[in-house]
Amino acid sequence: MLKLALLGSNVTHSLSPLVYESFFTRCNERYQYNIFNLSENELYEQVSSLITLGYDGFNITNPHKFSICKLVSDRAAKVTKVGCANVVKIDMHGNTFAANTDGIGFIRHLKSLELPLINNVLILGSGGVVPAILSELLAADIKVDITVRNMQRAAAVLSSFSGIGLLSLRKDYNLNMTYDLIINASGVCLKDFIPFIPNGVLKKANTYYDLAYSKAATYSVDFALKSGCKYALNGVGMLVYQAAYAIEVWTGNLPSSFDIASTLLGLEDFYVCNL
């Protein structure tokens, strides 16, 4: 039986257990998936405990995605590049291997929707999953601009990347800029950014993607559609895809089906403007 866990802060209401239940039920895999809410100071002790208890691996989420990289035995090249991880495998000898499936989860979900060609992207926020997503976008030769509240912090987080236009929320935008895709990675509702985004940027954008999947994200998606975006998504699809690739890290096998997003608490993940 696979012994897995989720480590993070305020993760009691995470949808991850439902995602893995769906995947593992389909392939008749026996497993357990436990959730641990913990502070930064408790991370090392908890990881050591999982190793001692014979766990096969765990997911790691905010605010520990960066800190975990200092505690593992080895890491994937992608983790070294982006500086953060969301999944760790524990082998039979207790060695730990960190990987990041956030980026590939995002890009594969986006590609599965067969949206119009994306050349220019605006990202709201620079923390959490942004480095992993940014790596995938830049690898696809997509131009990316990032809006941030704290330029100094963003520059530190994204120091390993080049060719990015860091745009402060407190500075003027190019009013003529058109983005094919706007990604909200800020963790707050889109409406809180509206005073800083010039009129017309949302209206000209083809697709809006809120990485959250809470009720606030549902409001955010609705707001984006009413503001002129043709398509809008929340983070349920990305959650499903990154989980599938996490399973591949743990077991060596990638699930063959990803069509479970709409079954999670009745949450849809893709919306089309009908105005």
- Please estimate the helix content: 25-40%
Query: Span from first to last CA?
Result: 50 Å
- Give the neighbour order of strands across the main sheet: 9-8-7-10-11-12-13
What radius of gyration results from the CA coordinates?
19 Å
Order of helices and strands: EHEHEEHEEHEHEHEEHEHEHE
What spatial form do the alpha-carbon principal axes imply? globular
User: How many helical elements?
Assistant: 9
Strand content range: 15-25%
Classification by helices and strands: alpha/beta
How can the largest sheet be summarized? 7 strands, mixed
How many beta strands in the DSSP annotation? 13
Query: Poorly predicted ranges (pLDDT <50, ≥5 residues)?
Result: none
Average pLDDT works out at 84
Structural write-up:
With 275 residues, this protein is α/β, with parallel strands linked by helices. The chain is 32% helix and 21% strand. It is built from nine helices and 13 strands. It has helices at 16-26, 43-52, 77-82, 102-112, 130-139, 151-157, 201-204, 215-226, 236-251; strands at residues 2-8, 31-37, 57-60, 74-75, 87-90, 96-99, 120-124, 143-148, 165-168, 181-184, 207-210, 231-233, 270-272. Helix 5 links the parallel strand 7 and strand 8 (143-148). Helix 1 crosses helix 9 (236-251), helix 4 crosses helix 5 (130-139) and helix 4 (102-112) crosses helix 9. The longest helix is centred in the last third of the chain and has 16 residues, at 236-251.
